[in-house]
Structures are given as structure tokens and as C-alpha cells.
Amino acid sequence: MLSGVLSPRSAPSRDPQPARSDAPTRGPGSVRRWMRSPARLITAGTAMILTAGTAALMMPFTRIGEHAPPLVDALFTAASALCVTGLITVDTATYWSPAGQLVIMVLIQIGGLGVMTLSTLLAVLTVRRIGVRTRAAIAQSSAGTLQDAPAIIGRILAISFAVEAVIAAVLVVRYLLDGMSAGTALFRGAFLAVSAFNNAGFALDSDSLIGENSDPFILAPVMVAVVLGGIGFPVIVEMLRRFRTPRRWSLTTKLTLTGTAVLLGAGTVLTLALESSNSATLGSMSWGDRLWNAVFHSVVSRTAGFNAIDTSAMRPESWLGTDVLMMIGGGSGGTAGGMKVTTVMVLLLIIRSELRGDPFVVAFGKRLSRAVHREVITVVGLMGALVAVSTFVVMVLESIPFDRVLFEVTSALSTTGLSTGITADLSPVSKILLVGLMIIGRVGPITLGTALALRRRPLLFEPPKERPTIG
């Protein structure tokens, strides 16, 4: 046997065989290697669904009228729905037929579930690539969400559909009491519930929710859905399982809930202070309605995109405050976008520690690793750079004031969907740029955070230290 294998006669026949055997297997092997990257897999999946959604919206029956929608409008709407943003170039209520609105709702559902599933499963991947001790600590504090993929997906689907069903039921009852037919009330309630829980911001009225800004039975369920979808699946599960023992909550849950409460309160106070004297927004309302709508605006500014007051008529100072809320966004593992509450909370803790001269950063009695510091700075720096560059490009292309362009760019990148009313008037190039920002804002933070957590290259040596002058 050995002599036959090593004989000179058999050697020539073996040389070409690897080349021939590699030819058919190189393709599948390279595809499998390519798909091992989470970033590539997410990007490819997003592109496929976006293409299918755009093609569906270009069908003539999806539009009210005789002609099929233009490619730019179909692409922009599909991207906005899939990225659960809510920016629109055409009126959802009057431009799209019920079939087109159904396509939009399906894309919103896919986008929201996809974000929650991917972010949670990528957290599992991250945990499995770190040390055993750290993995055990995370698994113990993660409300059982890091066990196995089928169980995680099942919980995500169950919680998502349960919340959407309850919110839809409340809205349907309210619409029925207004005299709507059962079919219309059911479709509107389901659409608004799906859009709210997934933080999409699409509505079936031309003025979004301005017509219902004095109806707490509409605003309240929408706000509940937005907050639940925005804080994230792991936080919801942990709160349900450890409701009586908040001291045992994970650091992520504590940071998310604390930051959410502070931001909601700050946004409400800011909106009341700046818009109470503005007759075009809150000034013409009673104080009860002012409070309701200030709270609502604070909630939806964290990447939901509905508006119960005319956003285009707000003061520039309110736009700037809303920009900050939109960039911060919601919780990790949720349907909200932005830099995430935990990122900003950790950044503030780092600043506090540096100002105090502390040797390390502590949050709720837990010390944060240096790797977390670098991840936070990277995410914040990249998001800020994207906003600055994109705002500059749009200002070069369009004759629109800086504050409106900044608001629109921030809304797209943070996947919020609020607008000052300039989206439909943008050139096709600017619209495509916003599409790119929505996609980056939707899948970018997830893949970037995972890549930073997984990319650990041990150094063979430690370079000498030197401290440059700062400030």
C-alpha cells in the first residue's frame, strides 16, 4: 500500500487531482468562509430583503393611481420600512394602496424582528468567544437569553407578537368607538401597533398622529409600544423574570432603564420649556394636552418617528435638542436605533471618572474593562463623523438651511423618522444618501459592536509608553 502511494508512477497522477478536486469545492468553501463574518451575512441579508421589498413596491397595484411608483420612491420607502425609520418621500396614506401599505407593514415587521434577533444572537456569539469566567457571569445576569438560538428566537417572536397584539387590540377598540368599520379598524390598529413596537414611525394618516394629539387612548398605547420595543429584548426578559429582585439585574438592564428614564424626563422638560410659547406646536393647547404631547415627543424622539405636533414648525433649539435624543436612541437588542443608551451612559461614566481622577470606571458597583472604553469611543466617533460628513454633502447638494439638514441626516442615521418636511424635496442623490445612512444606522452599530467585541489580537510585545499633551 505505501509503496503504491509513494511510487514515481503514481506521483504524476496525484499532482493534477487536487487542482481538479479544488475547482468544484472552492466555490462553496469560499462562500462558507465568506458567510462566517456576521457583518457580511447581515449586509447580504439586508440587501436581499431590500431588493425584494423595492420590487414589491414597484408593482402597479401597490400605488393609488395608474402608474407604478418610481424606483427612487420605492427604494426609499422600502429602506425606510426595513430599517424601521419612518422617513418618507411620498405620503403613506394617499400614495400607497392598501396592498402597498401591507408590504410596508411586512417590511417593518421583518426589520424589527431581524434587528432584535440579530443583536441578541450576535450577543450569544460574543459571549461564546470570550473567557469562561466572563461567559458564566454574563449568562448568570442575562435573564436566560444566552442559552441557545431556537429558544432565543422563540422568545423574541412570542414577546413581539404578544405586545403587538395587545396594543393592536386597544387601538382597534378605540377606532371602533369612533365609528370605523371592523375591517378598517383592524388594519389600522395592526399597522400602527407593528409600526410603534418596531419604532418605525409609519402612520396611515397624512399628518401622522397630529389629528389624535388630544386623544390619550391613541397616544398612550403607542408610547407604551415604542418604549417596550426600544429598551430591547434582553431587558424585557430580565425584567419579567427578576421583577422582584432588581438588585440582581444585569449592568445592561440597569444602564438602559436609568438612561431611558433620564432621557424621557429631560426630553419632556425641554419640549415643554421651548414649545409652550410656540402657537404652531404646543402653545395653542391646554396644559394637559401640552404635557401629553411633550411626553409623546420625548418618547418618539428616541427613534420612533411619529409626530403628534408639527415637527417642521418647532423652534431650531427644539430641533437641536431632538437631534441629541435621536442620536442617543434606545436600548441594545431593541428596535430603536442611535448610538444606544448604554453607549452614552458608559461614555458619561468615563468622563466622570477622568474628571475625578479615578483609576477605573465603576457603574452600579461593577468595574468596566478598558476594552469597553475603546468600543464606546469608537462607536461615538464614527457616528459623529458620519453625521458631520453627510450633513456637509447634503448642504453642498441642496439649498437648505443647516439646522434642517442636520435634523434630517440625524433622523436617517439614527433610524428615527422625524422630519422637518424637506425629505420629499431632496434631489435623488440626497435621497440615496439618506437610504445609505438608514442602512448604516440600522445594521452598522450591531455589526460594529460585535466586531469590536470579537476582534482581540494578542500582542507579542508591549510598546513603550509616552504621554502626548492633551488639551
If you had to describe this structure to a student in words, what would you say it looks like?
- The chain is mainly α and 471 residues long.
- It is 66% helix and 1% strand.
- A two-stranded antiparallel ribbon has the order 1-2.
- The longest helix is centred in the N-terminal third of the chain and has 31 residues, at 98-128.
- The N and C termini lie far apart (75 Å).
- Residues 1-26 and 128-147 have low confidence and may be disordered.
- It holds the Pfam family TrkH.
- It is a multi-pass membrane protein.
Could you state the order of secondary-structure elements as H and E?
A: HHHHHHHHHHHHHHHHEEHHH
Low-confidence parts lasting 5 or more residues at pLDDT below 50? 1-26, 128-147
What is the mean pLDDT? 84
* Strand adjacency order, main sheet: 1-2
Question: How far is the first residue's CA from the last residue's CA?
Answer: 75 Å
Number of strands: 2
Q: Could you tell me the radius of gyration in angstroms? A: 25 Å
The helical percent reads 55-70%
Give the helix/strand class.
mainly alpha
Per DSSP, the total helix count is 19
Number of structural domains? 1
Residues in β-strands, percent? under 5%
Quaternary structure classification: single chain
What overall form do the CA principal axes indicate? globular
Outline the biggest β-sheet. Answer: 2 strands, antiparallel
Subcellular location: Cell membrane
GO molecular function: monoatomic cation transmembrane transporter activity
GO cellular component, one term: plasma membrane
Main location: membrane
